[in-house]
């Protein structure tokens, strides 16, 4: 069951990485078009692009909610072990990505990773605050 949950979390995290990576879903560097790469050949209008992003964002949120429902059923020790595995996997992926870069690209990559970690920490803090508030109500 633990491996299934890790796989489920990984699948839920992949769209997040697509948004966060340079050349990801929101930077607009796709052959001069503002559409995500997978829709590049569709020649979407600006309105279609906005709606696609909206639908993809909703799908990502729904997947995260489903994943969270199953995570909430795990004992604390299993959640902690899973988080440790995810952290180690993320760190390994970051190191592999960094190894592909030229030395002059390392600084920008490291800064991007630092910003992502800051956002992750802010999000965790917000979720903790929200959970505490919901418990009090």
Architecture blueprint of SSEs:
Elements: H1 2-20, H2 46-71, H3 76-100, H4 103-136
Helix pairs in contact: 1-2, 1-3
**Structurally, how many domains make up the residues?**
2
**How is the main sheet built?**
none
Task: Tell me the distance between the termini.
Answer: 33 Å
Our estimate of the beta-strand percent is under 5%
Structural account:
The protein is mostly helical. The protein folds into two domains: 99 residues; 35 residues. 76% of the residues lie in helices and 0% in strands. The chain is built from four helices and no strands. Helix 1 runs antiparallel to helix 2. The two termini are 33 Å apart. About 12% of the residues have low confidence.
């Amino acid at each position: 069951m633990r491996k299934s949950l890790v796989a489920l979390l990984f699948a839920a995290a992949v769209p997040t990485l697509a948004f966060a990576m340079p050349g990801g879903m929101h930077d607009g560097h796709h052959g001069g078009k503002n559409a995500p790469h997978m829709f590049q050949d569709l020649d979407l209008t600006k309105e279609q692009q906005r709606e696609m992003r909206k639908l993809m964002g909703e799908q990502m949120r729904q997947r995260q909610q489903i994943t969270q429902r199953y995570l909430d059923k795990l004992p604390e020790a299993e959640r902690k072990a899973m988080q440790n595995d995810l952290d180690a996997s993320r760190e390994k992926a970051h190191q592999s990505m960094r190894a592909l870069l030229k030395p002059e690209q390392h600084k920008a990559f490291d800064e991007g990773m630092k910003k992502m970690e800051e956002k992750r920490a802010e999000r965790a803090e917000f979720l903790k605050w929200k959970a505490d508030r919901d418990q009090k109500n």
